Amino acid sequence: MAAIWAGIDAGKTHHHCVAIDESGHRLLSRRVASDEPELLELLNTVLTLGDDVTWGIDLADGGGALAIMILLNHDQPVYYISGRSIHRASESYHGEGKTDAKDAAVIADQVRIRRDLHPLRTSDETVTDLKILTGRRTDLVADRTRTVNRLRAQLTDIFPGLERALDLTNTGPLMLLTGYQTSAALRRTGKKWLETWLRNRRVLRADRLAETAWEVAGRRHTSLPGEKLTARLVHTLTAEVLSLNQQVAELDKAIEVRFREHRDFEVITSMPGLGVILGAEFLAATGGDMSLFGTPDRLAGFGGVAPVPRGSGKISGNLRRPRRYNRRLQRVFYISALFSIRHCEDSRRFYERKRSEGMHHIQAVLALARRRVNVLWALLRDGRIYEAVPPTALTA
């Protein structure tokens, strides 16, 4: 039977599927619920149209996860195409309207004519768990950042001197704010008692923190309107930040335990700058299967650390930063490159050489990140641990 291409426009509760033949003629257009019986019925219906069916979908997880797993369990080839690509491609098709049926038809036709789409495969269980854990960690860190910013704003309203003196990303200053939020409360306590109070709560360098808070409180004697209510809000926000810190710490332990079970744990963490968290995020962003990318160049492009050409006519050789890339993976490459500058002599020399060539800081770090992609790719390909001095080739 003839080859068939089926496109699925995935949604939260319903999907729309369109199947086309080699000429692009629609053979099927159907809206189905995102439930297993309906999806199995759709699969059987499409398979009756042709033995050789290729599927495309615009969601790689979330609402499309069930449909993808059903197709993969039935040995069906499935390709992912991003929503942005569908939107841009739809402009070249007839009509300006946007419907689920049209999007599904565009997906099917794009899968039919394109050869650069990524196939979806059954994910490694460890990688799937790391995606969930690192995604949750990202949410918690974002919540913590927002809460710290609110805490700073409230503390600035009643005690700006203390807000400037404290680093609210550390546990010690946060512990201080659970008991004392105003200058009057600090002055009534006394420096020695404050130091003892902090030591009893296992605050590091309690003497320095108590000295700083006491000096700041000594320069402030004016009470502001709403100070008592704002102080209670500061106490509440501080407790929230401490709770989020505890949740992030527990999640970090769970990530490390799960990451250690992956076959490439030792290889990835041997790279300078790639610790447990960044290494786990690398696996979560890439799936851990380098064969999907084919070359380190494609991995670098996916991670947004490879410049893309921008030329036209007589203008050639211009390069610019890519606009379409995985933000999460770029963050991993960029931050790990920053860490490697501090802890790896080779990385530091490479960075300084790029700066001496006229590159700005961000450009030099991105250049280093691009170079490190090649190294990481080779290590994963060979299953080899990173060494500062590469092993010499064996002579015959």
Shape estimate: elongated
- The sequence of SSEs as H and E is EEEHEHEHHEHHHHHHHHHHEEHHH
Separate helix tally: 17
Average pLDDT reading? 89
Helical amount: 55-70%
- Model regions low in confidence, pLDDT < 50 over at least 5 residues: none
The major beta sheet can be summarized as:
6 strands, mixed
DSSP strand tally: 8
Strand content: 5-15%
| Amino-to-carboxy terminus distance | 54 Å
Largest sheet, spatial ordering of strands? 3-2-1-4-5-6
Radius of gyration: 28 Å
Helix vs. strand class: alpha/beta
Give a short synopsis of this structure.
This protein is of the alpha/beta class. It is 58% helix and 9% strand.
Explain how this protein is built.
- The chain is an alpha/beta fold and 396 residues long.
- It has 17 helices and 8 strands.
- It has helices at 36-47, 65-73, 83-90, 100-113, 125-158, 160-165, 171-179, 183-189, 191-200, 206-218, 227-259, 265-269, 276-286, 296-302, 327-343, 345-356, 361-382; strands at residues 4-9, 14-20, 26-33, 53-57, 78-80, 118-119, 308-309, 319-320.
- A 6-stranded mixed β-sheet has the order 3-2-1-4-5-6. A two-stranded antiparallel sheet has the order 7-8.
- Helix 5 (125-158) crosses helix 13, helix 13 runs antiparallel to helix 15 (327-343) and helix 15 crosses helix 16.
- The longest helix has 34 residues, at 125-158.
- The mean pLDDT is 89.
